[in-house]
């Protein structure tokens, strides 16, 4: 019922303390919204992608990009129209379609979206859930709240996987003489797929609750932890590295 | 002998969501199991076997709403006053559908979760986890995610969890399904262990059950009955339809065309995303052939690659190398999609529309050669053949009903080849054989994946098996 977000690998991010990784993730997300140059933002996002590619591999990075592509296209298509003032980039007659500021705004939004997505993905792709739970508890998140966070993040790929399996099932049910589908037909096909995904997801709720209680969630004993973060022996150093990375980026790229 | 489980005058009725009065599923049900007893409860499909298991675990009606009357007591705990988590060391449940019980993201953490609930120290947890993983042959899969496991591997994870917790009563629902021959034998030994209280729930009487249990009971109607074993098995066969003639023998075959699906020098490789340290899975198929009208079985150990091979045959995955051809012509994945029908083990991933009628008509409406009238006639014919009601809602239908609908959908697609992935899992022999007979009646070739030797013998014909990463004649 839960699909793991973890991607096995051997890069330095896997050896980075999960407690510091959470701090780095939060600092980077904040950094993306600071007043920095567009080029600086783009370079920072590219750096995050490069680190992700080095640690988790091409396949994982491409699949993340694929999953956000529709939203990204939507953003790039419509965001420029929100800014009407400034130097005209494209116009039809006297009607301004896109301005330089509008295009820059769209690019900034897209960069932030890509950056936040990759930063969060990298945290979950390079940290096993048990250690992530402990790291969240280190930051004073109660056990049940930490469990909800980790379960939620493992449910996203579960839903994505159900979507893909149901999509496969559709492809197996196509008529033998079926023509290539047009966009309207594809959109029409999307509705039953989404309905099935919703049904599968809703059905999993009582099962998940049942299983958690049958595995003892709610017992009066204090829960122990099978995992520990003892193997990470450079917590302070990793904290310093996290803060340094973001500070250096800020100093280089501030507007 | 102390009492492990006492059920007195149990009556359970599921909540009605559409205002129509619902018949009780279980009524006047009484059952007592002594500590250390091994009991088999046989139940035809849809008679409340899984519901009964969930009631004993204390999660029904809590999470599966309905009206419960009567009393249930497990090792002296009155379940009306007990929460499911309090039963952690009393009852261990292995579900018929193992995927629904997974909560963690790796096998190791799955086993660790209940041990953490018990507050065990780390060293003891590590010891129990290592032991359970080794006992159930899962050591190499300790970092794997549930989605990367085969059906049998999932079952073994759930059994390993029970071993790690060591509850006093093992409640096993269709536990032998999905397990291969080796692990079925292993499970037999585990159940046979002296002093372990076990209740196995099953909808088929398997070879493995002979001499394994102290008592065999039958869920007949809405209550549990006990009688002399021979009479009980006859009655069970009658209730399940298994005393009727084999539908495969009677089914007329009307081949219109003869086709051959063949595979040459195929290599499949797959790496587990979450467990790079585990060796990548590899399957080599030097030769494979499936011809119109025949039913061929495919057997093999859990995780040997039966489903991976099937996914290649129907074009869902690409092989590393090798050729898949139809009638001697190498065939693309897209063409295989439309030629080889693959009935997934889980029917819920293949049915998605609000009514049976819409579900059956979905593919037909995409054909350019059929009028509305013809579509309606074909849909009605298929519904009648598979015992379906056109106005029913698939998501609320029983499991065998959903399986029948899944098969009817593929029947209407009229593919020349079908792959049936563990069709017999959670179906009676007669229901499964009937589905095969319907799919084959127009001459389709069928590849049947199964672990059940008796079922394979009922199907007859030749077979393939996967051993040590190679597909060969059985």
Question: What is the secondary structure topology, with strand pairs?
Answer:
The complex is a heterodimer of chains A (255) and B (474).
Chain A: H1 12-15, H2 18-31, H3 38-56, H4 58-78, E1 88-92, E2 95-99, H5 100-125, H6 129-138, H7 143-172, H8 183-214, H9 235-253
Antiparallel strand pairs in A: 1-2
Chain B: E1 3-14, E2 26-34, E3 38-42, H1 49-56, E4 66-74, E5 77-78, E6 91-94, H2 107-117, H3 122-135, H4 151-165, E7 169-173, H5 181-192, E8 197-202, E9 215-220, E10 223-225, H6 229-240, H7 247-250, E11 260-270, E12 281-291, E13 295-300, H8 306-313, E14 321-326, E15 329-330, H9 333-337, E16 340-343, H10 356-364, H11 372-385, H12 399-413, E17 417-421, H13 429-440, E18 445-449, H14 453-459, E19 463-467, E20 470-473
Parallel strand pairs in B: 3-8, 3-9, 6-7, 7-8, 13-18, 13-19, 16-17, 17-18
Antiparallel strand pairs in B: 1-2, 1-4, 4-5, 9-10, 11-12, 11-14, 14-15, 19-20
Helix pairs in contact in B: 2-3, 2-4, 3-4, 10-11, 10-12, 11-12, 12-13
Overall structural class of chain B, as computed from helix and strand content, comes to alpha/beta
The amount of helix of chain A comes to 55-70%
Which geometry of chain B do the CA atoms define? globular
How many structural domains does the protein architecture of chain A include? 1
Tally of contiguous helical segments of chain A: 9
Structural class of chain A: mainly alpha
Spatial shape of chain A? flat
The CATH architecture of the largest domain in chain B is 3-Layer(aba) Sandwich
């Amino acid at each position: 019922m839960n699909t793991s977000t973890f991607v096995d690998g051997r890069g330095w991010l896997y050896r980075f303390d999960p407690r510091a990784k959470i701090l780095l993730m939060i600092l980077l997300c904040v950094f993306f919204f600071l007043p920095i140059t567009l080029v600086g933002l783009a370079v920072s996002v590219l750096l995050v992608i490069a680190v992700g590619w080095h640690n988790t591999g091409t396949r994982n990075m491409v699949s993340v990009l694929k999953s956000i592509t529709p939203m990204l296209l939507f953003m790039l298509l419509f965001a420029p129209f929100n800014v009407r003032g400034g130097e005209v980039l494209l116009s039809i007659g006297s009607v301004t379609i896109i301005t330089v500021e509008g295009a820059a705004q769209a690019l900034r939004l897209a960069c932030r979206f890509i950056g936040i997505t990759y930063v969060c993905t990298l945290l979950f792709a390079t940290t096993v859930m048990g250690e992530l739970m402990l790291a969240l508890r280190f930051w004073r998140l109660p056990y049940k709240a930490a469990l909800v966070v980790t379960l939620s993040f493992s449910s996203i790929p579960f839903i994505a996987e159900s979507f893909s399996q149901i999509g496969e099932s559709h492809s197996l049910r196509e008529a033998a003489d079926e023509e290539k589908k047009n966009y309207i037909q594809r959109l029409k096909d999307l509705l039953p797929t989404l309905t099935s995904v919703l049904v599968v997801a809703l059905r999993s709720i009582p099962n998940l609750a049942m299983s958690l209680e049958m595995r003892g969630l709610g017992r009066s004993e204090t829960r122990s932890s099978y995992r520990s973060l003892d193997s990470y022996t450079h917590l302070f150093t990793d904290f310093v590295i996290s803060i340094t990375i973001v500070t250096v980026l800020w100093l280089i790229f501030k507007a | 002998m102390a009492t492990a489980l006492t059920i007195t005058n149990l009556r359970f009725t599921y909540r009605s969501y559409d205002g129509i009065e619902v018949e009780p599923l279980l009524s006047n049900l009484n059952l007592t199991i002594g500590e250390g007893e091994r009991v088999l409860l046989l139940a035809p499909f849809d008679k409340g076997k899984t519901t009964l298991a969930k009631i004993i675990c204390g999660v029904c009606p809590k999470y599966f709403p309905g009206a419960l009357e009567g009393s249930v007591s497990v090792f002296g705990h009155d379940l009306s006053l007990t929460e499911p988590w309090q039963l952690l060391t009393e009852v261990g449940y292995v579900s018929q559908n193992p995927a629904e019980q997974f909560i963690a993201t790796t096998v190791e953490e799955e086993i660790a979760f209940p041990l953490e609930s018990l507050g065990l120290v780390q060293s003891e947890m590590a010891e129990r986890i290592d032991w359970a993983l080794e006992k159930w042959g899962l050591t190499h899969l300790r970092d794997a995610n549930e989605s990367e496991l085969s059906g049998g591997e999932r079952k073994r994870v759930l059994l390993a969890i029970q071993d790690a917790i060591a509850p006093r009563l093992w409640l096993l629902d269709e536990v032998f399904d999905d397990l291969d021959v080796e692990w079925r034998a292993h499970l037999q030994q585990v159940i046979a262990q002296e002093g372990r209280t076990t209740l196995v729930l099953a909808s088929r009487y398997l070879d493995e059950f002979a001499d394994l249990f102290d008592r065999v009971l039958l869920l007949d109607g809405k209550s549990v009955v006990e009688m002399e074993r021979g009479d009980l098995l006859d009655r069970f066969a009658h209730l399940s339809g298994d005393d009727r003639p084999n539908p495969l023998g009677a089914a007329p075959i009307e081949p219109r065309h003869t086709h051959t699906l063949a595979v040459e020098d195929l290599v499949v490789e797959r790496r587990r995303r979450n467990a790079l340290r585990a060796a990548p899975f590899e399957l080599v198929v030097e030769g494979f052939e499936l011809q119109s009208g025949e039913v061929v079985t495919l057997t093999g150990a859990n995780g040997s690659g039966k489903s991976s091979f099937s996914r290649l045959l129907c074009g869902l995955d690409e092989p590393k190398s090798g050729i898949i051809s139809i009638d001697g012509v190498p065939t693309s994945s897209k063409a295989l999609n439309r030629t080889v029908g693959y009935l997934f083990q889980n029917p819920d991933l293949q049915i998605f529309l609000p009514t049976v009628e819409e579900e059956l008509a979905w593919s037909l409406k995409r054909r350019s050669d059929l009028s509305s009238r013809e579509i309606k006639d074909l849909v009605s014919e298929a519904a009648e053949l598979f015992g379906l009601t056109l106005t029913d809602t698939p998501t609320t239908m029983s499991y065998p009903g959903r399986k029948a609908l899944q098969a009817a959908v593929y029947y209407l697609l009229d593919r020349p080849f079908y792959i049936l992935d563990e069709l017999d899992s959670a179906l009676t022999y007669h229901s499964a054989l009937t589905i095969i007979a319907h799919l084959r009646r127009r001459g389709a070739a069928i590849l049947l994946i199964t672990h059940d030797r008796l079922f394979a013998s009922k199907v007859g014909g030749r077979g393939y098996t996967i051993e040590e990463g190679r597909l060969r004649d059985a």
